[in-house]
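PROTEIN–LIGAND DATA SHEET

This sheet pairs a single protein chain with one bound small molecule, zinc ion, given as SMILES. Inputs appear in the order they were entered. The predicted three-dimensional arrangement of chain and ligand is reported afterwards as a token string under its own label.
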Amino acid sequence: MGVGVRLTCSLCNTSYDLVEGHGFFVEQAIKYCRDCEELVSVLIGFVPNCPEEEISKGRHHVDKYANRCSNCNGLNLDDWPSTNPCPTCGKPMQREETYLWD
Ligand SMILES: [Zn+2]
Ligand SMILES: [Zn+2]
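PREDICTION REPORTED AS:
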């Protein structure tokens, strides 16, 4: 089950609606793109117990998009620290879970 995450910074009014966790047989994570200078949801790969059938159906998509920025398709991604720093001003962002998907 994946989670929609709304991140807001009260200092500079930046906000993001992103997705992380497991869903649709794939795993996603929030990362920072050094090229876009923004937070993005990144496809990580198939979930650990993904059925073979779904892997063969989805392999092309995952090979093409895994570990790439969903905005610019670039590979300059950094892990986003668990302190949730705002990419614009560095202040910890407020985190709110918005919806579930699977
Ligand atoms: Zn990017
Ligand atoms: Zn900020």
